[in-house]
Amino acid sequence: MLKRYWEIAKEMEEKTIMNGIADFMSKDHDRLDGLFKEFQSKKITEPENVKKSFFDFKSGLERHIVWEEEILFPIFEERTGMQGGPTAVMRMEHIQIKKLLSSIYDQILKRNFETESLESQLFGILSSHNVKEENVLYPWIDQTLSLEEIKVTFQKLN
């Protein structure tokens, strides 16, 4: 039974690698979008669970940002020689995103759930930010790296 589990896990890992960085990171965007919607819903239906729900979203998004800034952006910058290009803009957006995450979380800790304005700002930045990543950065990485380099990149992401 345990052997079969590891075989399935290995097959899933290989499928993930073959689908590439773009697929993996885009699916993480979708997962994070789901956590954000769950948080917004819980503000109305389960206020006692709002803090945990937002924390799950916040910590997931912060981890995603670390993956980009410490693993993916350096690949792009090294291969293109661009230090002040698209990744510099994305890093600036990450700063804005983290500030908004912090502001929303601070309000939640004060049990002030009227954070719609901050959420709207966050959603606006994330929407355009994710489009740039999903349409430019991630596909470029998949097209540029060899299969072996993609495997190494996935190891760093885990």
List the quaternary state of the chains: single chain
Number of domains: 1
The Rg value, from CA coordinates, equals 18 Å
Elements, N to C (H/E): HHHHH
Strand content: under 5%
Shape descriptor? elongated
Number of distinct beta strands: 0
Main β-sheet description: none
Kindly state the mean pLDDT as a whole number? 89
By helix and strand content, what is the structural category? Answer: mainly alpha
The residue fraction in helices comes out at: over 70%
Which consecutive residue ranges, at least 5 long each, have pLDDT under 50?
none
**Separate helix tally:** 5
Q: State the end-to-end CA separation.
A: 25 Å
Can you give keywords for this protein?
158 residues; mainly alpha; 5 helices
Protein architecture, described:
The chain has helices spanning 2-45, 50-80, 86-109, 116-144, 147-157. With 158 residues, it is an all-alpha fold. It has one domain. Helix 1 crosses helix 2, helix 1 packs across helix 5 and helix 2 (50-80) packs antiparallel against helix 3 (86-109). It starts with a helix and ends with a helix. The model has no long low-confidence stretch (mean pLDDT 89).
Topology, pairings included?
Layout: H1 2-45, H2 50-80, H3 86-109, H4 116-144, H5 147-157
Helix pairs in contact: 1-2, 1-4, 1-5, 2-3, 2-4, 3-4
Summarize the structure.
This protein is an all-alpha fold and 158 residues long.
